[in-house]
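Q: Here's a chain of 406 amino acids. Please give me its 3D structure as tokens.
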Amino acid sequence: MLLRIQKITLIIFLLSLFFFFSSVFAQETSTPSATQLSELQDQIKNLQNKISQLQGQENTLSSQISVMDNQINLTQLRINSTRQEIVSLNKGIEITMKKEASLKKSLDNLTKILINRIVATYQASSAQSFIALLSSVSASDLLVRANYLKIIQMHDKQLIYETQQAKNDYANQKDIFEAKKVKVEALRKQLEVYSQQLDLEKQNKKALLAETQGSEANYQRLLKEAEEQLARFSGFVQRQGGASLLGSQTQCDDWGCYYNQRDSAWGGSSLNGTQYTLASDGCLVTAMAMIYTHYSHRNVTPATINGISSNFASYYPAYLRYSISADGASSSREGSDLDSVLSSGHPVVVGISYDGGPKPDHFVVFISGSNGNYQMNDPFTPNGKNISFRGRYPTEKIVEVDKVVF
């Protein structure tokens, strides 16, 4: 009898130990810096609201710099918040790893003892019942002994149930912390994105100050030129019947790849996050992508160039710079003589003024020809690969000729 009581006491102690560990986990793995995280989130919301207000103001150099400064601060806050969350999660994971071993050992011991107890109980159940009957001195004594055996059996069943529940709780704890590990990895990747974004935002501010030389007059002049350029692109497309999307236009050969700005693979995409699309205003982006493929950068598409925000002017995000990069290669457009560049075997980016104005409203790629007879890749015309320029546009419409230098 004493041995049975000792076993019951040990099992109850081990169960208590398990629930103690569960309680410790619930307390110690709580986020230790919830207040700091909450404060950072409030600061992020405030900055987002401030940026929205600034963007609604008149477009000036000072307002643009204010937007950039606040965007830089916002990204820095997001970096700080993400780092804090990673620290908190790692601390919880570290505590769990230390406690998990103890909890597993306790569960193993509890299960082992319980199994031995169940085996012994059922092996001896019949003999114990018979002995209890023979050793009873009266009917009431027999009833007491029978009730005792019944209570012990009920307690065994309860222990089995509680042990199973303990195992389930242990498994749930493991699942929770595995999920936290996955979240930490996701946050680390997000942190890398934020860090790259912060570097880019700082570079854009530096570029804006360099391009405008800190002058409001220069800023307004550049802004006007960019707005007019995009308006001309849109006007050209409208005069040609609109920017309806086309299916499967890409064709590649030894020269490189022909791309169409209206290809459904990218035509509907926003031009660097603006209200414009590649289909309506992406002729120059598409022409540059074709040039890149000619110089062995076959992975470059219009979407590639469009996906690098530093390729666009800091003062007007839909305006493609003269110097861009893609696939690890930097390039610049430089004014050149048309026939001499083509005769040397290099393609040329050509701007045409379809409306007769002094500035281009459409860009194409000349791949060969001379003296007014040129073959081109037209990014707007359906299947416009290696077609005659004269068949589409008069030569007097040419207003810009650029060689691309890598």
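Q: Can you summarize the key feature?
A: Strands lie at 251-252, 257-258, 323-326, 329-335, 348-352, 362-370, 373-377, 387-388, 398-405.
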